[in-house]
Design goal:
- The chain is of the alpha/beta class.
- It has 30 helices and 21 strands.
- The chain is 41% helix and 16% strand.
- The chain has a 7-stranded parallel β-sheet with strand order 11-12-10-13-14-9-15, sandwiched between helices. Strands 16-21-20-17-19-18 form a 6-stranded parallel β-sheet, sandwiched between helices.
- A hairpin with a 2-residue loop joins strand 5 and strand 6.
- It is globular.
């Protein structure tokens, strides 16, 4: 093996199968440095060696998308024609039919200008930019502002309002380097004649600051105002120039750690002035004209360099913003639909059963399925019988009966002679699923096993042996089922419950458990979202909906209590306990923290409740307990030996105790609406009605509006829509966990109409409408790879 091949080997391994191995490769930078150091003299030219070593700097600390690009650059350095061994050239020579796809790795001229080569960008700044995926001028041009601020007029210090940002002008009264505890700081006191303002910096260059803040010097500062004792203060305000900008409208960029906002803004605006006009437009002219969108170069330049006439609008005009939003969503949808198309062309497993599914359901369940459940079963069984892999999302409100549908699918797969795995987010939910499955499926001869992290070694080995021999039909577990030594005889179906709680790598590991052929995948969520949004957030999944609950499920009465009404809330708790009912009291944290010191932690609440209700046993359940401790507490609560369970949100999903009728949610304003809706689904699961008491500790107006939504409806879809409006999709849907590429300026809720247009346009392009020539297709493919490379595996893994 040649010296260069030794260097390429770990890089090839990391990049194989669309970087499937990248997350598992540890110490890549150190390994490559050692290999370079061991190369004989002359194996690489001095220039290539120097460049290669420089590109290695910080490789293992990069975010995933930036790390991928760095690996590709390192490979490109070694794979230049004059350096690749002849044997490797032959192996890598593209086939004659490769056509335009071979052009995909070509890069445009703006990619060849590295940010590190620009004046004023030193090695440390270049490394910080690279960690956010900003390596070239092209990358910088597409790092767009998230908003704008009008900084034309200053505000008198006496009129500053804590909680708001403002521009002030004044003179320095005093300035010095000091300390705040162990931390060093630079503090300047500024006055404008109406009042004084303390300004503090914890990251600073002493000489530069002392030179800038000479006593009596005039300064212009912009920042968020806060109260500091009797004074007002700004922490890390931006130091403005002596004169306001030409337009007064300042772009606000997503922060990059270690780079002051002013420095980042100056760099990005300089890049826009010098290079935006040369930015190629990836959208074909015919598509852009049909949609009425401006060219990309104009839109990007206006985004970074707003004009004076943008002031009245608070930013560039609608067509400029729409073009930039459209591009983000168009390429996202293009990737989704391309993966969807590819998935439907793959060969999969065909599962057939000798009886129709309604007859099978009649043997499994002592109850009739609802119409929504039946529709979902129709769709899932049709998928199971097709020769391409199923990739389906089952959305259902809390208590709507998703588990029954999943168990019917498992029984159908068993009839075809294959195995099923159900992945649950918590051990408690996994244990509950296992108990339900054994009750419902045991009569049909299905073997059900539970595998969780707390399993003893001997027990675990026995389960894995039976699984490997095909003696286990349904395996239910937590992350423990993802371990490398968990091997199936013939996995046919993977069910992922509460799928937004699992990362891309975990879902990929589950699919890899099937031998040679991709298994069918069913993912479930109790977070209902609009269909168009679901198609984007959850990738290339088909969507089934269960909107209505089974008959007999009683509504949960919900009431919001202010802190001063706490006594009234706990009188409801007392009445429930006296009736023999059980109660949950849920806190958002296990213990107080510096970030939220005012929270009443669950660990301190137990003793107070024991004093208040001495005749009733109080239990504690939280995420930091050992699995066997959690299981014991939950079993005691389920059996009625614990009457009042103090818990963190580990009870959120799936816990089923029919005698629990009251849920008290402390600091309710700190939860999202969909989360509260799922939590209140834990009560009222038996014959008695449930009550949900939301105690809000000094909430703001918006928090009260959110909580009052829950008083007015139990419709999970209406609640989810409200939650999306209040909090946005990223926090609620776990898009980062899901692997969805981060959006710079588009908002999946606000830009719903643009999202629908982008999806329609992307579908048209894939269908050849409009027809594009080879060069236009190459440009689209190249841009798709640039924007989506870090998140494309989401669309293969669901």
């Amino acid at each position: 093996m040649s010296s260069i091949e030794k260097l390429l080997r770990p890089l090839d391994f990391a990049a194989r199968n669309d970087f499937a191995n990248l997350g598992r490769v540890k110490g890549l930078e150190a390994a490559l440095r050692a290999l370079v150091g061991s190369l004989p003299s002359g194996a690489l030219s001095d220039a290539v060696r120097t460049t290669f070593v420089a590109e290695l700097e910080g490789l293992d600390r990069l975010e995933e998308h930036a790390r991928r690009r760095r690996v590709l650059r390192l490979k490109a350095l070694l794979e230049a024609p004059d350096r690749v061994p002849a044997s490797r050239k032959a192996a890598r020579r593209p086939k004659a039919s490769a056509g335009p796809k071979a052009e995909r790795v070509r890069r445009g001229p703006l990619d060849d200008i590295s940010l590190g080569s620009l004046h004023g960008v030193g090695p440390k700044t270049a490394e910080r930019l690279s960690r956010r995926g900003l390596d070239s001028v092209h990358d910088a041009l597409l790092y767009l502002p998230r908003g704008y601020e009008d900084r034309r007029a200053s505000v008198a210090i006496a009129e500053l309002v804590p909680g708001r940002s403002a521009l002030i002008e004044g003179q320095v009264l005093q300035a010095q380097v000091g300390r705040a505890g162990r931390r060093r700081l630079f503090e300047a006191v500024v006055s404008d004649g109406t009042g004084t303002l303390s300004c503090r910096w914890f990251r600073f260059h002493p000489r530069a600051m002392e030179k800038r803040f000479v006593r009596g010097a005039s300064v212009r500062l912009f920042g968020a105002v806060s109260a500091w004792g009797a004074m007002k203060q700004m922490v890390h305000p931006e130091i403005e120039g002596a004169r306001p900008s030409v337009t007064g409208l300042v772009p606000l960029y997503p922060e990059i750690e270690g780079l002051p906002p002013r420095s980042l803004r100056d760099l990005l605006q300089r890049v826009a002035r010098d290079h935006a006009s040369a930015l190629p437009d990836p959208l074909p002219d015919v598509l852009r004209a049909r949609l009425g969108l401006p060219d990309l170069a104009t839109a990007v330049e206006r985004a970074h360099l707003p004009r004076a006439d943008d002031l009245g609008r608070g930013g560039p005009d609608r067509t400029i913003v729409e073009r930039l939003v459209f591009d983000e969503l168009f390429f996202l949808e293009l990737a989704l639909l391309a993966r969807r198309k590819k998935g439907r062309s793959e060969s999969g497993l065909v599962h057939r059963c000798a009886m129709p599914w309604p007859e099978l359901a009649g043997r499994l369940f002592p109850f009739a399925l609802t119409r929504d459940q039946s529709n979902a079963c129709d769709e899932i069984v049709a998928d199971l019988e097709r020769p391409c892999p199923m990739n389906r999302l089952l959305q259902g409100d809390v208590g709507s009966g998703k588990t029954a549908v999943a168990l019917l699918a498992a029984a159908w797969v068993k009839a075809a002679g294959r195995q099923t795995v159900i992945l649950a987010p918590t051990e408690i939910l996994a244990m509950q699923h296992a108990a339900t499955a054994r009750t419902m499926l045991g009569s049909c001869g299905l073997s059900v096993e539970l595998l969780v992290g707390a399993a003893k070694d001997r027990e675990r080995r026995a389960i894995l042996e039976r699984l490997r021999l095909g003696q286990v039909d349904l395996l239910i577990g937590t992350h423990a089922v993802l371990e490398p030594d968990v091997a199936f005889s013939d996995l046919g179906l993977a069910v992922i419950d509460e799928q937004h709680r699992f990362g891309v790598e975990q879902r990929a590991a589950l699919r890899a458990k099937s031998k040679n052929v991709t298994p069918d995948v069913l993912v479930m969520t109790a977070t209902p979202i609009p269909r168009t949004l679901a198609l984007t957030v959850y990738g290339d999944l088909d969507v089934s909906l269960i909107r209505h609950r089974p008959p007999g499920r009683r509504p949960v009465a919900t009431k919001v209590y202010a802190e001063e009404e706490r006594l009234a809330a706990y009188l409801v708790v007392e009445a429930a306990l006296e009736r023999g009912d059980q109660v949950y009291v849920v806190f958002p944290l296990v213990e107080s923290s510096e970030v939220a010191a005012d929270l009443k932690a669950a660990t301190r609440a137990v003793s107070g409740l024991e004093r208040r209700f001495p005749r009733h046993r109080v239990g504690l359940l939280h995420g930091r307990m050992k699995p066997e401790e959690k299981a014991k507490v939950m079993e005691e609560f389920r059996e009625g030996r614990v009457h009042l369970l103090v818990s963190t949100t580990v009870i959120e999903v799936g816990v089923d105790v029919p005698n629990a009728t009251v849920l008290v949610l402390e600091n309710a304003e700190r939860f999202g609406l969909s989360q509260v809706h799922q939590l209140r689904g834990r009560v009222g699961r038996g014959e008695k009605p449930g009550e949900c008491l939301l105690i809000a500790d000094s909430p703001g107006r918006e928090a009260m509006e959110r909580l009052q939504v829950l008083e007015g409806t139990e419709d999970g879809f209406a609640i989810a829509e409200a939650d999306l409006r209040f909090r946005g999709p990223g926090e609620i849907l776990g898009t980062k966990q899901a692997g969805l590429p981060m959006l710079m300026i588009a908002d999946l809720v606000r830009d719903k109409e643009v999202l629908e247009r982008a999806r329609e346009a992307a579908a048209g392009v894939l269908e050849g409408k409009p027809a594009l020539d080879a060069s236009a297709r190459v440009v689209l493919e190249r841009e798709l790879e640039r924007r989506m490379s870090a998140g494309l595996r989401l669309f293969e893994v669901a």
